[in-house]
């Protein structure tokens, strides 16, 4: 199932992240795509906040993966620089792990992405406004159906 929503400002992005945080479960795979500066890491920061993570969440662009321990661990990946070589980094341990796996630039390691996942593509409309295209594959379809904006 697919759905598009418009986010008008940071407050709405934070509220959207709170909404998604209420749907998380062990093994949740969240695939993010969007231009540089679209808000992928910002969304992840808000999501972490509502998960109860106190650490500063920032982009793992140069480290590929950052792990934030919590009741539900957050595995935050930025695979921008991998482009098809994700299997060489053994990321599957986290992608198929028991935490929340957030993968920025997920298309670069598409061969490692589970058939069932939550896909979120963020497009810049203007300085503050974003269009978010959501797709829920498999068990994630019911989450997309519940989202109303």
SSE ordering: EHEHEEHEEEH
Oligomer category: single chain
Structural class: alpha/beta
Order of strands across the main sheet: 1-7-6-2-5-4-3
Characterization of this structure:
It is a single chain. This protein is of the alpha/beta class and 149 residues long. The chain has a seven-stranded mixed sheet with strand order 1-7-6-2-5-4-3. β6 (118-124) and β7 (130-136) form a beta hairpin. It has helices at 10-21, 40-51, 92-95, 141-146; strands at 2-7, 29-34, 65-68, 74-78, 100-104, 118-124, 130-136. The chain has a single domain (13-130), classed as P-loop containing nucleotide triphosphate hydrolases (Rossmann fold, 3-Layer(aba) Sandwich). It is globular and about 35 Å long. α1 crosses α2. Helix content is 23%, strand content 27%.
